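Researcher: First entry.
Model:
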Amino acid sequence: MGVDCMTSGNHIWDKREIIPIIDQIPQLIRPSTTPRASPAAAATVGRGKDSHVPVAVLNLSGRACS
C-alpha cells in the first residue's frame, strides 16, 4: 500500500534534514500558511483510486486565540 498524500505541520521545519529532499517527495504537502518560498507544495489535486472524481487536499495551519 502506497501513500497518496501526507500533510505536515509547522514542526516539519524542526527536522532540518528534510529541507534538501522535501521537493523530491510529491506526496508531502506543507502548511499553506508558511511563506511561498518554502519548499514543497501547499496543496495537491489527484483522483480517487476507484473514481475519476478529482480530490483536493489542502494543508492549513493556524492558531487558536482565547
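Researcher: Second entry.
Model:
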Amino acid sequence: MESKLGATIQGIHDSPTLAAFAVAGAGSSAIDWLLSVAGASRTALEITVPYSEKSFSEYIGHQPEQTVSVEASRSLAHAAYDRALRLRSDVRPIVGVACTATIATDRTKRGDHRGHVGLWTSEGWSVFSLTLEKGLRDRAGEEQLLSVLILKTLASACDVPDLLELELSDSEHIEESGEIFDTALDAFNKEHISSVTFVSDGSSQGDVYHQGGVLSGSFNPLHQGHQDMVSVASRNLNAPVIYELSVTNVDKPPLRDDVVRERIGQFRDVGDLVITKAPVFYEKAQLFPGCTFIIGWDTMVRLVDPKYYDGEHAKMILALNQIQSAGCDFLVAGRINDATFKTLADVKIPTVFQDIFKEIPESAFRSDISSTEIRLASRNT
C-alpha cells in the first residue's frame, strides 16, 4: 500500500492539475499523505476544514438539508472549485475536491457510517458515496478508507493510473452520481461554470485563465474598430487581449441562445472570445483578476457616475474599490460625443482611483465607427 500510495501521490504532484480541498468529518489523512510527499505545492492551492455546521454553511453559501449527503458533497466540491478559480495564477487545469462524512466516534451513532467524496471540474461533477459496514473498522480504519477514496478520485481527475485499492466488505460498494456536460457552452448554460472561451479556430473551453487585456462589448456587430482597439491595446500592454461578451445585461433581457451563437460565430479566425454572465465591471473583475479592461470614453463616463449605481455615490465607490482590489485597471479610448472628441481628461474621477485609469492617446487610436449606425445601415439596405 505504501509504495502504491507514494507513487500515486507523486503522479498527482507531477500532473499539471491544481486543486482546492474541503474536507469535513473525514479525509484529513488524505491531506497528510499529499503533504508528506515532496511537490505538494504544485498540487494544493488551499485546504479547508469546515467542520462545524456554521463553518460548513458559510463555506458553501447556504444551509444544506444534511451536511453528509450527495448534495452537500457536491456543494462543497463546487465551493472548493470556486476558491481554486480565485487562487490560481496560471493556465493549469483546476479541480475542487471535497469529502463530507460521518464515521465512528466516541459515542454510539444510530445512523449509518458513511462518506461522500465530491469532485468538481470545468467538464462536470461527480460524487462517490460509500456506506460503511458498522463495527467492521474503528475510526482510524474508516478514516483511512475514505482518504484512499479521495486520492483515487483526485488521481482520476489528474489522469494518474489508479494503483490504490479499496478494501471493502461484501456489503460495501461505491455509488457514483454526477453529470458530465457535452460541451463547455452546455456547462455554462447550466451555470456549472462561469465562462467559456472560444478560440478563433472554433474550439472552446470552460473557465480558462487569462492574463492581459479584456475588451468587453455587445459586438452587435463586431467591427473593424473593435479589432483595431484590440491591436492597439495589445501593443500597449505587451500582452494578449481577448473579447468578452456578457449574455446578461443590467437593463435588458438575457441574450437568446441563437443570438449568442450568432455573435460567437463572428469571431471565427478573428480572435478569442470569452462569454460570461457578468454585466458590470466589478463582476468581471472577479472573473479576470489582474487584467486590464479596454473601454471607450462613453463607458468610462458611466463607470464613475453615481446615476448608474441607483444614484448612490457609496455604491459607485464600492464597485470601483472591488475592481481595484482585484488588481484590475482600465485603458480608455477617446470617443466622439456631440461632435467633440472626448478623452479621459474630460471625465471627473475620484482621486483615490485615478491611478487605475490610463489613456490610449488619440494619435495611437481613434475610431468613429458606430455599431448603431452599422445596424441602421444594414436594415436600410
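Model: Note on the second entry: The chain is about 35% helix and 25% strand.
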